[in-house]
């Protein structure tokens, strides 16, 4: 056994084996790079991305302004403003601001909501040019952040 | 055991035959501390007598509450005689309302018996605790961190300095009376020259 | 004017020897431009090959398949701020890159791209090249010292020690190659063109003469040359993980690009020594075995065919380009590039051009092979520690190279020895 | 313990009186910004040429005060913060925390949830070891294995994204079990990962383990004996590399690890190479566990009955699990309120990092980099 070991060592076999591994990886079918704007990654439906206020089929917000999400959020970045509607004695949502700058997308607000009104959708292009832009208002939460779509 | 005033044993639990540490009854929703009594505790009791304040089990984990004067010897005793060779963790808890506010916790572990025990001792504010780096070298950084976070000095520690906070930081963050909002004003103003943004 | 050019083209001697100053300047500019294009291509080639070996694509954004990436890099480096550390030693800091680049390019005076395609044919060609290539260490140590900070100082000291200790192993193997040149004519020659002609007369590349000795000499030289240019397993001076960027840490902008240029030029210089000495410089494969008129024409077609093949490859990729609006400029760029390659290929097939170009083609092909090896080493091997590097330099490569010299000598004079023994 | 602190506070100037540097020594600052310190660790080296005479670590650059934050959050709200401890192994951190709170509550986690947790934690161990392999080999100079390791890690991150919606800071478990059930095609995807990861790990063997340069760079570098490991309180692959057969998953099984059979790889010499072999072998064992757990996944509820606002009884509990870096423990003190009274994290990297000073003394600069890599520290866990 010693001789084979010696010959292998002398003929640099172990180095050549390593070189063969890297050479073998050159065939184009192995390439895994994903060129971002053109081929985008496919996102799973449970992805916790951009927060959205869900609407039912005729466009009314499901949110009943109960504030459970504001309580559940570890960063306390949700503020729910509501008015007491005189006839129906029920709270009506007036404004709902969500400070995306401090959000860590943990999904606790989504879990706490009794009426599944708040949902972290699969939008992941949230970069903006100003920090203030990150404080999302009610309308931004309804129809999402309209960032510039790059194609190249 | 936070509210237990020092010196007397915890209020006796409703009499239960606690010869062997009863595992937390699966059905009982909330585990309750039972007194822990076995051959090891006997040895400690007859060698240290009043030093051992309490030996109990909570949710299946045994712990000893020990007097601060005798805690170092108990640790060495556990190390030499009873085979608890490795120190898993060393930390402190701050109970501001008690007269001995700082509770040091040593978690010892014996690989041979696959057993873990917690030794706890109470210290007054500003009083220094004995170091265990002579026996376990790994305690060096843990003690530095307890000093950095709680301000408990350790006698005999080779190099007691702050480890996580900047060196000239004032105050000890993990104390209960340390308000997280006004903590860094001095340091930020001095080093960065701006008002802290808290 | 045209007469002198035509008359010169038929002369069979290098401009330096012919003493024609005009032609020397032309050749110097040609070689300088050729090496710079080689460095630019090498920059793109290394990034692409390394990327493919690491299952990624490499530069794809700047120009089609990243073809404009080297130009973009060069532009960036020129525009970038070129700062000098506060209490650095100003003159030495400024002179270090100049010295390194000068020595790197100085070596190309004697490199023979063809029987007459060399700036000059010094009769001590190899000695001159080795001497100049060891001057590069000076620039590196100056850079390390002048940056006045810990990392560069350590990096330059490491590089100095490394270059010195591998210099000896290299020159020993060169001695063995030069000794081989004296087999046929009885008197060896140090001139690079002379060495290649000796290989032609002996009908064999020196790598394959005296079977084990030539190959071991080439092996030792190729390992030593990698260490000489601080590359791959021996790239300790600029080992990112320990010394951040070694002696280059304080350099930025244009000065850094000079070091970069010098490193690649050094690599090309050292590989051209290896090709000239062991792989028969500009000789086409099997010049004697497959000699004769038609074989010559067949081999002279090869350069043209390769360029046309490259053009076809570009057009093939042009068709596979995604047809979205943003990629249209890239697609057209690729088509234009393919066109240029096609034109070059066709020009090379013309009989007049064919004969002259094939020498340069075979030489660059062999140097290209060594370049590919450099990249291959860099992707595959971890880095040696400094003391192991020294151990290999002194305790492994040096004895083997001395052994190679002794073996060449013994095999060279074997008849006389046998005659002596039997008489 | 010898006083290896050769330097006053690194920030104060050295007093002229106490000269700690003789003429040919040099203090090199492997500062917080350094390509191979795996995060913001600052190592001060006292060098004599290449040899390291004195070494001191300065940490705290990534201190976010997670233990103070815990005292102002409810038990459930502290879940996402635990992912930020060892950010390469977020799932096993949250497993440790959830197990600790469940022991405090005395809650029994349903079997299916335990199996789901084992599958995801072992996948997370694979991902963490792949990050370690990529960066450790990159520090020693081989550039390519990083890309192969991260390419294989991508499939595991896709499973996390499909299961809980995030790739790195997963926040996958809740106190009492799991929040989501296995999505359709979970078992097939996980088994596919097990099948094609085995041969890929063997591919690294040709590229690295056999390579003589790698052997020379790692054999008897950063040697630490078993007694020193126990004295330093070192746990995890570093301890097993020194020959001590100790793995919490075997010795104190939690979350139904006792149902699976796997063996614990141990090294002999306690050097960088043995720890490398131990970790690579551990990846194979993790694949075995995942395969058995996926095949044994039975039907059933995925979360125990836990009140909406968790108020554990007064008392304290210390629970530790075998995280990829070592024994990760949570010492929770509860005073009966909805917010923890004290959360102490027993960070394996913090305690293992102390051994750097003993291992690296007398070695060369290049070895210090290799030793930091073999200790596999993550600064999120060291600084907390």
Characterise this structure.
The complex is a heterotetramer of chains A (152), B (198), C (423) and D (384). By secondary structure, chain A is of the alpha+beta class. Helix content of chain A is 24%, strand content 16%. Chain A has a domain of 93 residues: Alpha-Beta Plaits, CATH 3.30.70.3270. Chain B has 2 domains: 131 residues, 2-Layer Sandwich (Beta Polymerase, domain 2); 33 residues, no CATH class. In chain B, the strands form 2 sheets. In chain B, strands 1-2-3-6-5-4 form a 6-stranded mixed β-sheet. Chain C has a domain of 278 residues. Chain C contains 16 helices and no strands. The chains are: A alpha+beta (152), B alpha/beta (198), C mainly alpha (423), D alpha+beta (384). At the B-D interface, strand 4 and helix 3 of B face helix 3, helix 8, strand 6, strand 7 and strand 8 of D.
Keyword list:
heterotetramer, A: 152 residues, alpha+beta, Alpha-Beta Plaits, 3-stranded antiparallel beta sheet, two-stranded antiparallel sheet, 5 helices, 24% helix, B: 198 residues, alpha/beta, Beta Polymerase, domain 2, 2 domains, 6-stranded mixed beta sheet
Task: Break the fold down into its secondary structure elements and pairings.
The complex is a heterotetramer of chains A (152), B (198), C (423) and D (384).
Chain B: E1 34-35, H1 39-48, E2 52-58, E3 61-66, H2 71-80, E4 86-94, E5 102-110, E6 115-123, E7 129-130, H3 139-150, E8 154-155, H4 185-192
Parallel strand pairs in B: 3-6, 7-8
Antiparallel strand pairs in B: 1-2, 2-3, 4-5, 5-6
Chain C: H1 2-10, H2 15-18, H3 21-53, H4 69-79, H5 90-106, H6 125-146, H7 150-185, H8 192-201, H9 211-228, H10 240-243, H11 253-278, H12 293-319, H13 328-349, H14 351-380, H15 386-412, H16 414-422
Chain D: E1 26-30, E2 42-48, E3 51-58, H1 66-70, H2 79-83, H3 90-105, H4 111-139, H5 144-164, E4 173-174, E5 177-178, H6 186-209, H7 212-218, H8 226-232, H9 237-241, H10 248-251, H11 272-295, E6 315-323, E7 326-334, E8 342-346, H12 348-353, H13 355-360, H14 365-375, H15 379-383
Antiparallel strand pairs in D: 1-2, 2-3, 4-5, 6-7, 7-8
Helix pairs in contact in D: 3-4, 4-5, 4-11, 4-14, 5-6, 6-11
Q: Count of helical segments of chain D?
A: 15
Provide the domain count of chain B: 2
**Helix count of chain B, per DSSP?**
4
What is the H/E string of chain D? EEEHHHHHEEHHHHHHEEEHHHH
Structural class of chain D: alpha+beta
Q: Can you tell me the residue ranges of chain D where pLDDT is under 50 for at least 5 consecutive residues?
A: 1-15
Terminus-to-terminus distance of chain B: 34 Å
CATH superfamily of the largest domain in chain B: NADH:ubiquinone oxidoreductase Nqo5 subunit
The CATH topology of chain D is what?
Answer: Cytochrome-c3 Hydrogenase, chain B
The main β sheet of chain D shows up as:
3 strands, antiparallel
Report the CATH architecture of the largest domain in chain B: 2-Layer Sandwich
Mean pLDDT of chain D: 88
Could you tell me the mean pLDDT of chain B? 79
Q: Briefly, what CATH class of the largest domain in chain B?
A: Alpha Beta
